[in-house]
Specification:
The chain contains 25 helices and 24 strands. It is of the alpha/beta class. The C terminus is likely disordered. It binds adenosine-5'-diphosphate and magnesium ion. Magnesium ion binds next to helix 12.
Length: 710
């Protein structure tokens, strides 16, 4: 009988209760299955040995054969270190331990020959190896060595408690002994054949005990594919289940509101990308399934008008719509812009934010419930329980990356009571989420794989690309002169300061100092300056913003509160102070505040002379390109997927072996195959998909799928 991989790890020979509890707490290994899925970070050569006189500074991990001489304790600033001399026929080096010294003294045998493995450092003219991995030479010789010894993920606590890489390798060997290296296949025969994948058992064996680079590569490919395949399968299934289970409202007519707006009031020709996206949305809304769509479009690509026209379709079908934005400023701006359009069409629209008065709220609640109010704009305030719609048909979230997944699902429950169904179930509204933070395709596929994705990949005609330059602080006077020229031409200017939580106090000081010197350089009454920052009251922010929007002030000094979505087409210069402190996507967002009108726009990135390599890359990227997707790719490479906004919470990216950046092509293939299989066989009922169904079930992710899909 095959060994059950769900067996607790405690049962494995060589793993007692102590080790088991450490493996659980440090590496999340609870079962045989978890251990088998602990993949090496890298591999090192353990067939060659160094002499102590061959050591070099900054070398990779190496192994040295020598005799362990007596221990001595050396007192240092904090605590003690344990040192032992390690001697071979060419000289000696020191072995050093800072932690776990008691255990080291008890378990190592002075006078014996060991193989020491680790990284040697040159300190005070002598080589020393901190926390080496030590194995008796006699033991060492019993084991087969390969040129590719796996190095497993570890933690400081594990190595302190003596669970070294060698111990992990040992228990891994034990696991293969007990299971005879036989693991059930998790992919379908078709996939194995089609992609020329090696079997699961072969892959696992070769990833843990590789014989050559070639088989290792095959093993890794197979396991990466499998990992990404099941993530995609899960996301696509979720999407399918939504579509079949959740009945959406069918917006089957495009009526008066939409048509008269399109024919009489639309001030410009839509770009072909906007038209394509509107078509995609229209077809979603017209089908009987509930829409869950992500609209990606670079800053300034014109997402708002697409959102508005989608809402008009909702109104044409007798439904209410709402638009939620992450900040008050942005909500107000949407409200002002859309009110103008709504007035022309006799549509009722209102705004709800944290600063709405009790009276205003009452009024809004009432008109929402009796259906008088057609469009509601607002911040998170929309999510409050008191906000009840009569029949919400479409909910739009702007700048989605600023919200969590939880908020998206909260909007779901704002749908209307279905009058058709017997039970008083709630029908969720159609959902459109929009984001201007371009997410590389691969990341979008993992993060938002359960959504359908539309992309506006074209800017409205006639926009001049923004000219971006990098200037050092000592050129500030020249920059001021440039600003003056632009203002004389009638333009407006943003000057943005960083505001980072950790250094908030200093940052406010910088902002205020900056504001003062700008006020001196640009004195009243010739110049008017607005200032907006997070510590101001919402009404004051709004007042200052409006002065700038109306053109009463020429300069807007601000922290990043203006980052998101603000639209002042006459503003043509964006100065970003201490720009080395901003992330790439933030810089790109900020730059997107200009270049919205017909005039040539500029972005000036100010920095000090001290720049890290990453900062330099970010600045160079900004100067080189205006393309948000290109910038996002660089960002992903610099920071890794874990840091990109919103990804931490998703959990989708806790990958064991694959890497969404490096394994992009495997990811794309995995998504393609998952889609193809589910298209033909949405319940995975066909015999050739039995392996997939079993694996998926074991992952605990297959709950009554048959109830939903048929
Ligand atoms: P974003 O996608 O960043 O939200 P907005 O929707 O704020 O962009 O649009 C930016 C500006 O471009 C707005 O002033 C909007 O009126 C204008 N705009 C949108 N679509 C077009 C178009 N097809 N032609 C010309 N201007 C457009
Ligand atoms: Mg916008």
């Amino acid at each position: 009988m095959p060994v059950n991989l769900q067996t607790p790890i405690d049962y494995l020979k060589g793993v007692g209760p102590n080790r088991a509890s450490l493996l659980k707490s440090e590496l999340g290994i609870h079962t045989y299955q978890d251990l088998i899925n602990l993949f090496p970070n890298r591999y090192i050569d353990r067939t060659s040995y160094y002499k102590t006189n061959q050591l070099q500074q900054n070398s990779a991990e190496i192994q040295v054969i020598g005799v362990l001489k007596g221990f001595r304790e050396v007192t240092q600033k904090r605590g003690k270190r344990l040192v032992a001399d390690f001697i071979d026929d060419t000289g000696s080096m020191e072995l050093v331990w800072f932690r776990g010294q008691k255990w080291i003294r008890e378990s190592l045998k002075v006078g014996q020959t060991y193989v020491a493995f680790g990284r040697a450092n040159l300190i005070g003219g002598k080589f020393s190896m901190p926390h080496p991995d030590l194995e008796l030479k006699s033991e060492h010789e019993k084991n087969l060595r390969s040129a590719m010894q796996p190095i497993y993920p570890s933690t400081e606590k594990l190595s302190n408690k003596g669970i070294t890489n060698r111990v992990i390798s040992k228990i891994m060997q034990q696991l293969f002994l007990e299971t005879k290296g036989q693991f059930s296949e998790s992919l379908s025969p078709d996939l194995l054949k089609e992609l020329k994948l090696i079997s699961k058992s072969d892959a696992l064996f070769n990833v843990h005990f590789p014989k050559s680079n070639e088989v290792l590569g095959k093993a890794q490919f197979r396991l990466k594919f499998e990992e990404l395949f099941y993530i995609q399968l899960q996301l696509i299934l979720k999407n399918l289940i939504h579509k079949s289970r959740i009945k959406g409202f069918t917006f089957d007519q495009v009526g008066n509101y939409f048509n008269s707006f399109y024919q009489e009031h639309l001030a410009f020709e839509l770009t072909s990308a906007q038209k394509r996206v509107l078509k995609e949305i229209r077809s979603d809304l017209g089908s009987s399934a509930q829409m869950n769509r992500l609209l990606q479009g670079d800053v300034g690509s014109g997402k708002t008008i697409v959102a508005f026209m989608s809402m008009l379709i909702g109104l044409d079908n007798g439904f209410q719509c709402c638009l939620m934005a992450p900040t008050e400023i942005l909500s107000v701006q949407h409200f002002n812009g859309l009110s103008e359009l709504c007035n022309k069409l006799n549509i009722s629209i209102n705004i709800l934010t944290g600063s709405s008065t009790t009276l205003q709220r009452k009024e809004i609640h009432k008109s929402l419930e009796n259906g008088d109010l057609q469009i509601l704009i607002g911040t998170h305030a929309l999510l409050e329980d008191k906000v009840q719609f009569k029949n919400l048909g479409l909910a739009i979230i702007d700048e989605q990356h600023r919200f969590g997944v939880a908020q998206r699902s909260k909007l779901w429950r704002k749908g209307s009571k279905s009058e058709l169904s017997e039970k008083s179930s709630i029908n969720p509204p159609h959902i459109l989420v929009m984001t201007a933070t371009p997410i590389p395709r691969t990341l979008a596929m993992s993060l938002y794989g359960d959504l359908d994705i539309s992309v506006i990949d074209e800017l409205p005609a006639g926009r001049k690309p923004i000219k971006t330059v990098h200037r050092y602080d000592n050129n500030r006077l020249k920059v001021f002169r440039f600003i003056k020229d632009e203002i004389t031409k009638g333009r407006q200017v943003y000057i943005v300061y960083p505001l980072i939580q950790e250094s908030e106090k200093m940052d406010y000081k910088d902002l205020m100092d900056g504001y003062e010197s700008i006020s001196r350089e640009f004195p009243m009454p010739d110049y008017q300056i607005s200032i907006v920052h997070g510590k101001m009251k919402a009404v004051d922010k709004e007042y200052e913003m409006q002065r700038f929007v109306k053109g009463e002030t020429q300069i807007m000094v601000a922290t990043t509160v203006i980052e998101v979505g603000v639209n002042v087409p006459n503003a043509s210069v964006m100065i970003i102070e201490s720009s080395e402190r901003f992330g790439l996507s933030q810089l790109h967002q900020l730059r997107g505040r200009v270049g919205r009108g017909a005039e040539q726009s500029y972005c000036i990135l100010m920095t000090s002379h001290k720049l890290s390599n990453d900062s330099k890359t970010r600045l160079e990227t900004m100067v080189k390109t205006n393309d948000g997707f290109e910038i996002a790719e660089v960002d992903l490479k610099l920071r890794g997927p874990g840091d990109i906004m919103g990804t931490q919470q998703s959990g989708v990216l806790n990958l064991r072996i694959a890497d969404v950046v490096k394994d992009k092509t495997i990811l794309e293939r995995a998504r393609y195959e998952a889609k193809r299989i589910l298209k033909d066989d949405p319940t995975l009922a066909l015999p050739q998909h039995a392996n997939i169904l079993n694996t998926y079930r074991q992952m605990g992710k297959f709950k009554n799928i048959w109830n939903y899909i048929s």
